[in-house]
Amino acid sequence: xxxxxxVDELGSKHNEPPSDQVILENKIAEDHHALVTRKNQxxxxxxxxxxxxxxxxxxxxxxxxxxxxxxxxxRIKVGxxxxxxxxxxxxxxRVVDGFFKGIVDPIENAEKALNGRLTKYQRAVAAKxxxxxxxxxxxxxxxxxxxxxxxxxxxxxxxxxxxxxEEERLKREAAEKKAEDDRIEAERLRENARIRDEExxxxxxxxxxxxxxxxxxxxxxQRRAPPxxxxxxxxxxxxxxxxxxxxAVEVTRKHAAAAQGDVVRATASAQAxxxxxxxxxxxxxxxxxxxSKWIHDEASLNRETIDLEALRQHLGEEAxxxxxxxxxxxxxxxxxxxxxxxxxxxxxxxxxRVR
Length: 355
Prior knowledge:
The protein is an all-alpha fold. The chain is 70% helix and 1% strand. The protein has eight helices and two strands; from the N terminus they run ααααααββαα. A two-stranded antiparallel sheet has the order 1-2. α3 packs across α4 and α4 runs antiparallel to α5. The longest helix is centred in the middle third of the chain and has 150 residues. The mean pLDDT is 82.
């Protein structure tokens, strides 16, 4: 920016008429110049007062008392003049506020009424959606419960199949052992019979009485091992039953796990925010949704039972000071001491009052 440009802009500003604010300030200063003059006189006199008043200087203390009274009187007078000067503007403000209030208040009332109706509607919508989601959650939980029961039943069936397989294995082994024992016993009997026959023949030859010997007795019939007891099912059939039961357990477990996942998703859906369950957008771009927050019922506040300890960190300094002042006023001043109230120092504050 050149110097000439700055000069031109400054000149153009000087040529502009004063603003309404400047005109008002000049008018008030002109009409009440005496108040400003008196203020300057009082402040000049106050500045001449020593910073300390000697304990024996009674005349100076009286002079200061008079000055305090004059300062107070002028302050009160200025306050009254300010109220008088401001009144026409306040009246204008009230007129302006009243006019626009007549427009805004009915609009606000209509807005609140309609918002109340819309809130009631959206709460009903949110409740309906929540009930539907809870129903889905309950349905998923019931399905998961049924599948868990099936899985447990399948596991019990697997255990039973394993028990039956073990029982039949033991029976089969016992039957095989008995058959082997019977075979060994039959072999032993045949061997004993052979030995007896050989000994009898030998004895007959030795005695030379072969002609007088009675006809040899026939050998006792050979004992055969009885066939093993019939097994209800073959080993392969038992194994197939166990394998089928194990497969059923695996399938039901997978189905139960999938159903539990549905429960988790349904639970998360049922816990959706009210805003998500009620949000709607109009063709004109307006969006309405419920907004939720925790508040308290002021009518239910009980001074005697409310937990003040829980509120300690939430009480502002001004609220605490107000409470302390109220507590002090309620006490017998004759019994007050600096440590009468824990956490704060109490003392007597003495000040001069000029009337």
